[in-house]
Design brief:
The protein has ten helices and 16 strands. About 30% of the residues are buried.
Length: about 300
């Protein structure tokens, strides 16, 4: 393959990955017009249209999609090989794309950004906060962070936090006006704040267990959200009962008396947060470095058995 042909394919892959000529041109260090000319040369050489462009959108044609699916893994392998060579020389660099739940971004990633950047200044972190459980392979992410029970197939999973006890919470004012539910069945007469956590759009069914008896409840109420901060805030404002996944935020409000836990004897334990990534032959050095940071393994004297806060 001639150098010009390789450059054309690399340019095409960059455009599809970023769904933008401007972003791809900036990544490649080209002007948008030069990049556009390169793509036209590739299309002329192949005798096929590869991209459909409008003023608002860009997407590969059927031929373009087929080509991208074949060449993208090859370019990724080459990028990983270069990154590994740099790491061997004591350098970790490149762009690392992470898809994460909001609570993981707040609890795990945000507090460690400065430390990670100081240790790896040549790594660009591309953090996408996504509570809809998007497919990280289709989204071309290097890794994702999810609760353990919601990992995609064919992924390598690494635990980041311990399991968590779920909690149904409400404000004292709400409970004073509507009463305290004594069993999960009582939720049918209460206002409930629902979570939309699944890609298919269905609301999450609240799970309970007591003395070996397990229940799932279709809760209804005035709000459905896919973001934990919105749901907790709604509970604080008295809109209804919330089923809390983000115990860090909830425990703070429980300690301050702004929220009250109910149905504690029916509480279940759910898996904690896991980082997961595609099963490749080689892990990108930047991802390995981020994992060490998230687990605090990069500290000079980590506490024995310590978990990230």
């Amino acid at each position: 393959m001639r150098g010009s042909e390789f450059a054309e394919l690399k340019a095409f892959a960059a455009v599809v990955e970023r769904a933008s000529f401007a972003r791809a041109a900036a990544h490649l260090g080209l002007s948008p017009s030069a990049l556009s000319q390169t793509i036209r040369q590739l299309e002329a050489r192949l005798g096929a249209r590869l991209l459909n462009r409008t003023t608002r959108s860009l997407a590969p044609t059927a031929a373009g999609d087929q080509l991208f699916r074949r060449i993208a893994p090859l370019f990724r392998e080459m990028a990983d090989a270069v990154a590994e060579a740099s790491a061997t020389a004591g350098q970790t660099r490149g762009t690392l794309r992470i898809n994460t739940l909001g609570m993981a971004a707040r609890q795990l990633i945000a507090p460690r950004l400065g430390r990670f950047h100081r240790a790896h200044p040549d790594v660009v972190l591309d953090i996408v906060v996504d509570d809809l459980l998007s497919d990280i392979v289709a989204g071309r992410f290097d890794a994702g962070i999810r609760v353990g029970g919601r990992l995609e197939k064919d992924m390598i999973a690494l635990r980041l936090t311990p399991d968590v006890n779920m909690a149904v919470v409400a404000s004292p004012d709400y409970l004073a006006h509507r009463g305290v539910p004594r069993s999960p069945a009582d939720l049918h007469t209460h206002a409930c704040i629902n979570w939309r956590l699944q890609v298919d759009g269905r609301a999450y069914r609240w799970e309970f267990e007591k003395k070996g008896k397990r229940l799932e409840i279709d809760a209804e109420g005035p709000l459905v959200t896919n973001h934990s901060d919105v749901g907790i805030e709604a509970a604080l404002q008295g809109l209804g009962l919330a089923y809390a996944f983000d115990r860090e935020r909830v425990d703070e409000h429980l300690a301050q008396g702004r929220l009250v836990q109910v149905l504690a004897d029916w509480s279940i334990t759910r898996p904690g947060l896991f980082l997961y990534y595609p099963n490749r032959r080689h892990m990108p050095p930047a991802l390995s470095a981020l994992i060490d940071c998230l687990l605090d393994r990069d500290l000079s004297a980590p506490e024995s058995g310590a978990r990230p806060s």
